Amino acid sequence: MSTRAFIDVLVLGAGPGALAIAAALGAENLRVEVLAASNHTDPWPYTYGIWGEEVDEMGLQHLLEHRWKNTVSFFGSGASEPKADANKATHHGRDYGLFDKKKLQRYWIKQCDAASVQWHRGYAAELEIDENLCTVTTAEGKKHKARLLIDATGYEPVFLKSRKNWPIAIQTCYGVVGRFNTPPVEEGQFVLMDYRCDHLSSKEKEEPPTFLYAMDLGDGRFFLEETSLGLAPPVTLETLKSRLKQRLAHRKLELTSLEHEELGLYLPMNMPLPDLQQPVLGFGGAAAMVHPASGYMVGGLLRRSPSVAKVLAKAMRDKNASPAALAEKGWAVLWPPDLRRKQALYQFGLEKLMRFEEAQLRDFFKGFFALQSDQWYGFLTNTLSLSELVQAMWTMFVKAPWSVRWGLMGMQGRELYLLWQFLKPLN
Ligand SMILES: Cc1cc2nc3c(=O)[nH]c(=O)nc-3n(C[C@H](O)[C@H](O)[C@H](O)COP(=O)(O)OP(=O)(O)OC[C@H]3O[C@@H](n4cnc5c(N)ncnc54)[C@H](O)[C@@H]3O)c2cc1C
Predict the structure, then answer these.
(1) What mean pLDDT do residues 30-45 have?
(2) C-alpha–C-alpha distance, residues 295 and 318, integer Å
(3) Number of folded domains in the chain?
């Protein structure tokens, strides 16, 4: 059967993952359609942060709504440090930004429209794949056929098979946007992590640690978010809410007007790699592209979509290539062995952090941000090579205080398994 009558790629979803890959495929002159349960212009629910240098390198700084130069974290004082250092800020010396979500969405939609990408609304419900085509049937009974299917339906993908072989660590947060009796952070400041915990009782300090992510939005408005880095089972919304209240009360801060409340956002951090042999390709959260240490993904989507699209465009030139053969090429460029190895190391690191007690965690992050700036930045943006990543982790280990080193050395749970994946990456 000739596949010429059919489109090249059907992308499922209308989140950042779907739009990024649809735009990149369109730029390669492929015939692309997008099928999503939501409208592709619907506003996205989350706030997307990114390091300034990431957007600068791609020439996309105009997509930011806010940008901070004064970027800091607070890790309190360590056991061997004077108490007077408890409120000393760690200065990151790198800009941080928040995307203007509408602009980011329009940026991708504009590229899609320029490439005549077709938009369809519908809930993908069934999939058939044969030697030539993928056929998706929607809940409404409509059929869509394409040579390749890319599932970008988020963390619980509709068709992609993932290896659900462990409990997923979930990042949870409770946030408020509003005005306060006194500024909760300095004017023009962005706080990546405030791990100070002097507002907690000794018993509360034994519970899973949480930190404050905070920023000055200008005009007297601030965004404050109590966050748990990632845990299975996750820290509950009630705990985060009461932790934020306690933190504010301790610093005599009062919310005088509440503009917006972010209720218990839920972000899976250590998604296992999808099965890379399957005849459907994934992209975005569905394909485990979220960074297991930071929870970020948009920078990775922007950086990685063009190379995936290029390889697929080349593979599509073979008119007899089956959906499975096309997906195989896509998986190979999306998850090459070095990236799989790095993923195993990141997940190994997250396992360690999830076991750390509050004081150990604070010491760990102090050491982490004392690495060379390019090292911690490359670690957080997943832009280090495999050997650079290993070097950064080794330096961190060597320089860490003994309390942290012990925690890093003892192997528990699935840590050995993850180290094995580093040596022998999953297929
Ligand atoms: C709380 C939170 C905060 C985050 N903060 C950041 C951040 O600061 N910076 C950053 O880089 N990343 C961040 N992320 C990570 C990541 O960028 C987002 O999760 C991002 O939204 C994932 O994009 P996605 O397109 O993969 O999935 P989603 O945004 O979840 O989109 C999935 C799409 O699939 C559609 N869909 C679902 N099922 C079907 C179906 N059966 N048929 C058709 N369509 C379907 C949905 O309608 C939706 O359009 C955050 C994530 C969360 C949860």
Answers:
(1) 96
(2) 37
(3) 3
